[in-house]
Amino acid sequence: MTFLGITLDTLTMTLCLPDDKLQDLLQTLPTWLHRHSCTKRELLSLIGTLSFACKCIPAGRIFLRRMIDLSTTVRKLRDTINLSDAFRLDAKWWCDFLPTWNGTASFLDTKWTPSRDLDLYTDASGTVGSGGYHAGHWFTVAWPDSLQASIEWKEMYPILVTCSIWGHRWHGRRVLFHCDNQTVVHIWKKGTTRCPDIMQLVRSIFYVAAKGNFHVMIAHVSGIDNSIADALSRLQIEVPSIGARSGCRPHTCTNATMSIPLATQQLTELATAYIHNSVAGNTRRTYQVGQKCYLDFCSSHGLATLPVTSRTAILFVTNLANRGLAYRTIKVYLAGVMHHHIERGYADDVTTHALLQRTLQGIRRSIGEVRRPRLPITIDLLRRLKECLRQRADMCSNDKLMVWASFTLAFYGFLRVSEFTARSPTEFDVNATLLARDIVLTDVIEIRIKSSKTDPYVRGHTIHIAPTGTSVYAVRAYGKYTGNRGYMCPEEPAFQFVDGTWLTRQRLNLCLRELLTQAGISDAKMYVTHSFRSGAATTAAEAGLADWLIKTLGRWRSDAYQIYIKTPRETLDVVPKAVATRQQFDIGLSSRWTMPTL
């Protein structure tokens, strides 16, 4: 059967490039190696023919990248393009590969096969060597003293050796390699790097993959999870009479004893979990953004990623400042980079370097620290939101009651949004999300917060909310919501829409903005989900509650709560007169409003 010009054989599960297309490529490609220029039309025609061949040779797509980039240097089809050395390298790959290929390829698996399913691991040591392991077979390579190569090159070398030795076993597979170097993963996903030596390895791996009719992808795995290959890379093996070795020639063997006993492997896996849990999930995700920026920066400037030196860190933060990032963002990104540095086993913390500290201080003084203004949600505003919510015709009664219950609990409980919302509409963290069983409703509400920003060691905290007897009544609001909903699974999030999805930060923020706009609040964008917590602190201060009590209610460990308290305009208007007349300063707030019982 022929489909889109490709011959498909469903009995042998193969696809074949038409013979006339293959012969045309074999005849025309060598002539391109000797050409110095061409028109854009001619180059696009060649790219189109090779793209067609890539339907049978997926690994060949990377060797079109520089051809495509070259075709974009001019606009008109008749314009002349000077062929670059990079173009000739791509063309030469095709010239080397096509004569060895019979034009037929097997269907590749629809899913990627993780290297663990193949019992396949690779790793490299910066100073000792590299190694790989596959289904009881392994190899080691000892680095010669004369070798001058980056750690990224050394990490990618055993992948090439692995493909060369065992690639014939993976015919038709999509093999997902695991590597403990994020830079290697980044280079592979981009398909290019400024380092010619690493690029040569990338091209070689794709050549072997194309000949073996398999496809390769590289994903990151923590170094401590890669214990077998890590031991091989450090030559921690027991081999009877290996003999002297020199150069980068791999030594392979099937009968050898690894120097990592089973108990050590189990301890290694446990240590991995502990290291992973040393940082909160949200913090780790934020760090990953900074790490990606760092990898992009190092790749584009030809800098080694690890170990992180003071010079690299200074250039990195300078680049971020030049791009217009806020000072606080720069600090977070730098913390993410250093987290990656430490996880990779490097002990030196360059953030304490005097020159880096001065650079950060200079950035802070130059660009300042701009804080986006955020307004608090007060009792009066909550009453207006309640009325607007009641008028919403596009929401069912369950969703209205659920949203109002979340508003009141967030306010009276001084809750952070991450403490009562789910991670996504369909996923939640049982150890962090507020579940139905975490809220006990009697004549009061008892909320059990399992973990929070200020409770990283999961000691937990119980919040007590008593009745108020006013229209903003958390106990009654949550009681109406649960009564309307009926049965609630105790192991699921407490706040659930009628369509079965969970309440998330994004959904809550969207609903809040819509209600504020409906209420005619002109600066609705200055209110966020955190405005409930800051509004509770502001209202408590207006009611004259003691500082220690506000800190207790909000579970603040320092005086940071004071930044959330917004001083009313009428309070500021009293100050000049009180100072001028030396009268006792009395803002008179308690006579106008009393904080409800919490």
Please name the CATH topology of the largest domain.
Answer: hpI Integrase, Chain A
Radius of gyration: 32 Å
Number of domains: 4
Return the CATH architecture of the largest domain: Orthogonal Bundle
User: CATH superfamily assignment of the largest domain?
Assistant: Intergrase catalytic core
Spatial strand order of the main sheet: 1-2-3-6
Look at the helices and sheets and give the structural class.
alpha+beta
The span between the termini is 75 Å
Beta content = 5-15%
- The total strand number stands at 18
- Work out the helix count: 20
Q: What is the residue-mean pLDDT, rounded to a whole number?
A: 79
| Top CATH class of the largest domain | Mainly Alpha
Provide the helix percentage. Answer: 40-55%
Structure described in brief:
The chain is α+β, with helices and mostly antiparallel strands.
Q: What would the keywords be for this entry?
A:
4-stranded antiparallel sheet; DNA polymerase, domain 1; 20 helices; 4 domains; 598 residues; Nucleotidyltransferase, domain 5; single chain; 44% helix; alpha+beta; Alpha-Beta Plaits
